[in-house]
Specification:
heterodimer, A: alpha/beta, Rossmann fold, 2 domains, six-stranded mixed β-sheet, four-stranded antiparallel β-sheet, B: mainly alpha, abc type-2 transporter like fold, 4 strands, 64% helix, elongated, binds adenosine-5'-triphosphate, binds magnesium ion
Chain lengths: 245, 412
C-alpha cells in the first residue's frame, strides 16, 4: 500500500499558548478510509488545517504524496480535497456556478470541469437543485454541494471533517457511499468524526485523539480485541476515559 | 502571482457584486441620482444666497436730518436704501439690536460749517458683525462723495477755478474672471470632496462582501484551500473592489456633469448677475467645459485614490467576522479621512504648502481645486501622483499581509 499522507510528531500551539495538538503521528495509504476520531475539542480540525497548509504548526513534519507541505504548499493543496465543517456556499450563485468557480481555481479545463460536475451531480444526487441559487439550499443540499466542491479536482487525498453532522439518515448514506466509492477508486480518505457508528462501519484503521494527544492508533478490529469491547463506541469510551491503551 | 487565478477571482467577485441589489444601489443608483440632486440643490441655494446679498436693502436712520435736508434727501433716494424712523435718543440701541443696519448722525451746526467752509464730521454708527453694515456704509459713502463733489464744484466756481481739476483718479471696475473660473469656483468647492467620498464609499460594500462577508457565509476556508496563493486571492478581491469604486466615482462625476450641463433646461435658475453665474449659452446649462487633459488628470488621480482606499478598506474589513462588524470599523476610519479633507476644502483662501501634496486624500483635494481653477503645477501633480502610488502599494502590501494572518482568518 502506497503512503499518501504522512504526519510526523505534529505539534500545534495556538498564539494564546494553548497546545491543541501534542505530538501526533500517523500515516494513511491509498485505498483506505482512515478514521480521525476524538471528542469535541480533541484537535481534529486543527490537524486537518495543518495538513492542508492553511494553518502553520509549531513542530513536526507533514508529507502529502511524498511532498513536504511547507515547501510545496500549493502542490499539496491541489492534491488534497478538504470538506470543512463550515459548509457555506456563495448564495447568489447556483450550485453549478459555485462548482465552476472552484474548478477554475483548481485549474481544471472547462471540458474537464463540465464532465466532473456531471459526474458529481449524479454521484451525490444533486440533479434536483444544482441549477438553483445556493441561498435556497437546505442543510443536506449545502452539505452535498460542499462535498462536491471539496473533490471537484478529483484529489488523491480526501479529508472529510464531520461530513455527516446535521444530516438525516438518507443524506448520511449518500455521504458514506461517496467515501466507500473513493476508497474503491484508490484514494486515501481521512474521515474525522466523533460518531463512532459511522466510523466503525467505514474505517479500516483509526487514530483516536484526546486533548491533542494520540491515545490509540490501529485497525478497528485490533482495538476491539485489545480492549475486549464489542463495538468501537465502547472502545472509544473506555480509551477516552482511561486515556490510553 | 498567477494572473489566471487573479482574473478568475476578479470576475467572480464582480459577478457576485452585480447580483446583489444592495451593491447595485450603492454603486450605481445612488451616485447617479442622488449626487446631481444634492449638487444642484446646493448650487441653487448658493445662487439664491448670492442674489439675496446683492439686492439686500440697507436700513438706515438719519439722526438730525433737518440740519442737512439736501444730504438727507440724497441718502433717502439712493438705490438699496430704506430710511427707518428711530427714536433719536436710542438710535445706538437700534443699531446694536439689529433693527437698523446703520445710523447717520448729522451735527447741529452742519449748515454753518458748510457755509464757513469748515470740515464737517458725519458720524456713521453701525455694527461690523451685521452682514449688511457694509452695504449701508457703501451707500452712505457714495452719497457723501457725490455731495462733496457738488459742494466743491460750487466753491471752485465761486473762485473762478475750472472744476475739472477736481477729477483725479477714477476707478473703472472690470472683472477678469472667465466663465471657466467662475464655473471652476463652484466645482472646485464641491467636486473634490465628492470624489474622495465616492472613492471610499463606492467600493465599501463590495470590500466588506468579499472579506467579512466571505467569513460570515463560511466560504473563506474553502477558498484558502484551493492552490491559489494568498497574494493572488487578495489581488483578485482588491481589483474587484477597485473596479466597483472607480465605476462609482465615474458614474457620480458623469451624472453630475451631465445634469449640470442641462440644469438650465430643468428650470434651475442660473441666470447671470448673481455672482455665481455660469453665463450659459442662451441661459441653458453652464457655459464651461472641462478640458480633456484636466479630465484625464482627474481620472488618474481618482484611480490612485480608489486603489489606495480599496486596499485600506479591504484590510480593515478582513479583521471583522461579520458584515455589521466591518461596517462599524469602517465608519470611524471614514471620518478620520474625511475630516482633514473637508477642512482644507472649506477653509476659504487656504494656501497649501508643497508637502501637503504628499498627504493622502488631502493632496487629491488640493490638486483637484487647482486643476478646476485652471492652474497646472507640475510639482504638485507629480508629488500627488507619486505619493498616492506609494500609499497604494503600502496599502496593498498591508492587505496581503492581513490575509496571511491566522488569527485574523481563524480567530474565534
Ligand atoms: N484559533 C484558536 N486559538 C486558540 N485555541 C484554539 C483555536 N482554534 C481552536 N482552538 C482550541 O484548540 C482545541 C482543538 O480544537 P479543534 O477545533 O481542533 O477540535 P476538534 O477536535 O475539531 O473539535 P470538534 O469535534 O468540536 O470539532 C480546542 O480546545 C479549541 O478551543
Ligand atoms: Mg472540528
Amino acid at each position: 500500500m502506497e503512503t499518501f499522507l504522512k504526519v510526523q510528531n505534529l505539534v500545534k500551539e495556538y498564539k494564546n499558548g494553548f497546545r491543541a495538538v501534542d505530538d501526533v503521528s500517523f500515516e494513511v495509504g491509498a485505498g483506505e478510509i482512515f478514521g480521525l476520531l476524538g471528542p469535541n475539542g480533541a484537535g481534529k480540525t486543527t490537524i486537518i488545517r495543518a495538513i492542508s497548509t492553511i494553518l502553520s504548526f509549531t513542530n513536526g513534519k507533514i508529507e502529502v504524496l511524498g511532498k513536504d507541505n511547507l515547501r510545496y504548499a500549493e502542490e499539496v493543496r491541489s492534491n488534497i480535497g478538504v470538506l470543512t465543517t463550515d459548509i457555506g456556499a456563495y448564495e447568489r450563485f447556483t450550485g453549478k456556478e459555485n462548482l465552476q468557480y472552484f474548478g477554475e481555481l483548481y485549474g481544471l479545463s472547462s471540458s474537464d470541469l463540465d464532465k466532473r460536475i456531471k459526474e458529481l451531480t449524479e454521484l451525490l444526487d444533486m440533479g434536483g437543485f444544482i441549477d438553483k441559487k445556493a441561498a435556497k439550499y437546505s442543510t443536506g443540499m449545502k452539505q452535498r454541494l460542499a462535498i462536491a466542491r471539496s473533490v471537484i479536482h478529483d484529489p488523491k487525498v480526501i479529508i472529510f471533517d464531520e461530513p455527516t453532522s446535521g444530516l438525516d439518515v438518507l443524506s448520511s448514506q449518500t455521504v458514506r457511499d461517496f467515501m466507500s466509492h473513493a476508497r474503491e477508486s484508490g484514494r486515501a480518505v481521512i474521515f474525522s468524526t466523533h460518531q463512532m457508528y459511522d466510523a466503525e462501519k467505514l474505517c479500516d484503521r483509526v487514530i483516536i485523539i484526546h486533548k491533542g494527544k494520540e491515545i490509540a492508533y490501529d485497525s478497528v478490529e485490533n482495538l476491539k480485541t485489545q480492549t475486549g469491547e464489542r463495538d468501537l463506541e465502547d472502545v472509544f469510551l473506555k480509551l477516552v476515559k482511561g486515556e490510553g491503551v | 502571482m498567477n494572473s489566471k487565478h487573479i482574473l478568475t477571482i476578479w470576475k467572480k467577485e464582480l459577478r457576485d457584486t452585480v447580483r446583489d441589489r444592495r451593491t447595485l444601489v450603492s454603486m450605481i443608483l445612488v451616485p447617479m441620482l442622488l449626487m446631481p440632486v444634492i449638487m444642484l440643490g446646493m448650487f441653487k441655494f448658493m445662487s439664491e444666497q448670492a442674489a439675496k446679498q446683492q439686492t439686500q436693502i440697507a436700513k438706515i436712520s438719519i439722526v438730525g436730518g433737518d440740519y442737512a435736508p439736501q444730504l438727507a434727501e440724497a441718502i433717502k433716494s439712493r438705490e438699496g436704501v430704506e430710511i427707518a424712523e428711530v427714536d433719536v435718543q436710542n438710535y445706538k440701541q437700534s443699531v446694536a439690536e439689529g433693527r437698523i443696519d446703520a445710523a447717520v448722525v448729522i451735527p447741529e451746526d452742519f449748515q454753518d460749517r458748510i457755509a464757513g467752509e469748515k470740515a464737517v464730521n458725519l458720524e456713521l454708527v453701525s455694527k461690523s458683525t451685521n452682514a449688511n453694515a457694509a452695504n449701508a456704509f457703501a451707500a452712505v459713502s457714495f452719497v457723501v462723495a457725490d455731495f462733496n463733489a457738488g459742494l466743491l464744484e460750487g466753491r471752485f466756481t465761486a473762485r473762478d477755478i475750472n472744476a475739472d481739476i477736481l477729477s483725479g483718479v477714477t476707478i473703472v471696475p472690470e472683472d477678469l474672471a472667465t466663465e471657466q473660473e467662475v464655473g471652476g469656483f463652484v466645482l472646485a468647492m464641491l467636486l473634490p470632496l465628492l470624489i474622495v467620498m465616492w472613492s471610499i464609499v463606492g467600493g465599501q460594500y463590495t470590500a466588506i462582501d468579499v472579506s467579512a462577508g466571505e467569513k460570515e457565509r463560511k466560504t473563506l476556508e474553502a477558498l484558502l484551500l484551493t492552490p491559489v496563493k494568498r497574494i493572488d486571492v487578495v489581488f483578485g478581491k482588491f481589483l474587484a473592489v477597485s473596479t466597483v469604486a472607480i465605476i462609482s466615482v465615474v458614474t457620480a462625476i458623469g451624472s453630475l456633469y451631465f445634469s449640470f450641463s442641462y440644469a438650465g433646461d430643468l428650470g434651475i435658475p442660473m441666470e447671470e448677475g448673481n455672482g455665481l453665474s455660469m453665463g450659459g449659452a442662451g441661459g441653458s446649462g453652464l457655459g464651461f467645459s472641462i478640458e480633456p487633459q484636466v479630465a484625464l488628470l482627474l481620472f488618474i488621480v481618482s484611480l490612485f485614490l480608489v486603489l489606495m482606499f480599496s486596499a485600506v478598506i479591504l484590510s480593515i474589513s478582513i479583521y471583522a467576522k461579520s458584515f455589521k462588524e466591518a461596517q462599524s470599523y469602517i465608519g470611524p476610519a471614514y471620518i478620520v479621512v474625511i475630516l482633514p479633507v473637508a477642512l482644507v476644502n472649506s477653509v476659504p483662501g487656504f494656501e497649501p504648502v508643497f508637502w501637503m501634496f504628499a498627504l493622502p486624500a488631502v493632496n487629491a483635494v488640493l490638486l483637484f481645486k487647482e486643476l478646476f481653477m485652471g492652474a497646472y503645477d507640475w510639482g504638485h501633480i507629480s508629488l500627488t501622483l507619486f505619493s498616492l502610488i506609494i500609499y497604494s502599494i503600502i496599502a496593498i502590501l498591508i492587505a496581503a499581509k492581513t490575509y496571511s494572518k491566522e488569527s485574523v482568518l481563524f480567530g474565534d
